[in-house]
Amino acid sequence: MLGSANALQTTNALKGIMDAFLEYQNIKATEETKRTTIDKEKQESIAKINAQKEILLEVVRTKHAENMLVIDKYLENLDKAIELNNPQLVDQFLSGISDTLKNNPLTSIKNIVDQSGQLKITL
Questions:
Q1: 111 in the Ramachandran plot: left (φ > 0), alpha (ψ -120 to 50) or beta?
Q2: Which residue from 17, 74, 83, 105 puts its CA 20 to 30 A from 46's CA?
Q3: pLDDT more than 90, % of the chain
Q4: Alpha carbons 112 and 121: distance in angstroms, whole number
């Protein structure tokens, strides 16, 4: 009977070890799946941020280019106003240059970050 009890204890111990091992394998698989999902979501978020960043940079570049064209035109006209010795036109073009320089390219971008902290650009 002693041998039978020993065999039963050994069998139960082995079953306990196998059950624990199978539980470990299930937990490991679940955690690996979670890590894969988290990594995929991270990569998607990075891609979205990079896309939004490129849009933002393009808006700023375009706005700066537009401002420079306006300023160049004001400078051409300022030179002509100086040649004509017309103080009113000189003042008008200097005011235009000043107003253009005050124009911040980012003021045309509203709600750059939404409530959840995501970069969101609307023009």
A1: left
A2: 105
A3: 52
A4: 5
Contact 77, 88 (CB under 8 A): no
The shares of helix, strand and coil residues in the chain, as percent rounded to the nearest 5, are 85, 5, 15
Torsion of Cα atoms, 32 then 37 then 40 then 42, to 10°: -100
State mean pLDDT over 78-83. 93
Look at the pTM and tell me if it is higher than 0.70.
no
85: phi > 0 → left, psi -120 to 50 → alpha, else beta; which?
left
Structure token pair of residue 118: 């995501």
Tokens linked to 6: 């020993």
DSSP structure class, residue 85: T
